[in-house]
Amino acid sequence: MTWSEFIRPAQRRFRRSRAELIKQLHPEIEGALVVDLGGSLSFWAEVKEILKPGKVIIYNISPNAVNTGLTHTDDNIEAHLYDGKRVPMEDGSADFVLCNSVIEHVPPDQREGLAQEIKRIGRHYVVQTPAKSFPLELHFGLPFMHWLPRPMGRKLAPLSPFGAMLSKSHALRYFDETQLLPYREFQGYFPEAKIHTERFLGLPKSNIAVT
């Protein structure tokens, strides 16, 4: 069994569980205009039946995320490329902004800018990121890897279950762009939000900022 075959069912369960939490916190998301920053069509294929938004607009910097499977989506889902900095929408024009497992891939000096864009366009937002305190680094499938000094973690990336499916250069690039956020850093970008913690086996798996 490959790493992707092992992790995909778990990812689906976590995504659906997160969608249930969002619906519980904000039942008014049903029928609302939702902007998903850094999202994908595959994510909405899994959670749309739970959240039931009126319309979804996805903005992503990756052509794969916005092009793959577009012909199979419903009419109320759009996907667009953007520059990763300014979202081409008016202030307060989205009912909700979702941003799932994205901010840890944003360079640290650009994270504040992403947070400000989320708050600029959305009347409410839900931002999720993996908890750095969780012992398993879920991007690569190795325990404690993200707790090591970055040079040591980088050496392990090509040897990880995820890295074994990629070329060495791809694994290293992915490692370089992935830096998990400590709780206080994440909280600092969204001080007005309520931080909910998803847990797995009693351990904090991810943090979710909600307004």
Helices and strands, with pairings:
Layout: H1 3-25, E1 33-37, H2 41-51, E2 55-60, H3 63-67, E3 77-81, E4 94-100, H4 111-121, E5 122-130, E6 136-137, E7 142-143, H5 150-156, H6 168-177, H7 183-189, E8 194-200, E9 203-210
Parallel strand pairs: 1-2, 1-4, 2-3, 4-5
Antiparallel strand pairs: 5-9, 6-7, 8-9
Helix pairs in contact: 1-2
Features:
single chain, 211 residues, alpha/beta, Rossmann fold, 2 domains, two-stranded antiparallel sheet, 7 helices, 9 strands, 35% helix
CATH architecture of the largest domain: 3-Layer(aba) Sandwich
The CATH H-level superfamily of the largest domain is Vaccinia Virus protein VP39
Which outline best applies? globular
Quaternary organization: single chain
Taken as a percent bin, the fraction of beta residues is: 15-25%
- Spans of 5+ residues with little confidence (pLDDT < 50)? none
CA-atom Rg in angstroms? 17 Å
DSSP strand count: 9
CATH classification, class level of the largest domain: Alpha Beta
CATH topology name of the largest domain, in short, is Rossmann fold
Estimate percent helicity.
Answer: 25-40%
Strand order of the largest sheet: 3-2-1-4-5-9-8
Distance between the termini: 40 Å
Largest sheet: 7 strands, mixed
Mean pLDDT: 89
Overview of the molecule:
With 211 residues, the chain is an alpha/beta fold. The chain folds into two domains: 3-139 and 178-210, Vaccinia Virus protein VP39 (Rossmann fold, 3-Layer(aba) Sandwich); 143-177, no CATH class. Helices cover 35% and strands 24% of the residues. α1 (3-25) packs parallel to α2 (41-51). The longest helix is centred in the N-terminal third of the chain and has 23 residues, at 3-25. The model has no long low-confidence stretch (mean pLDDT 89).
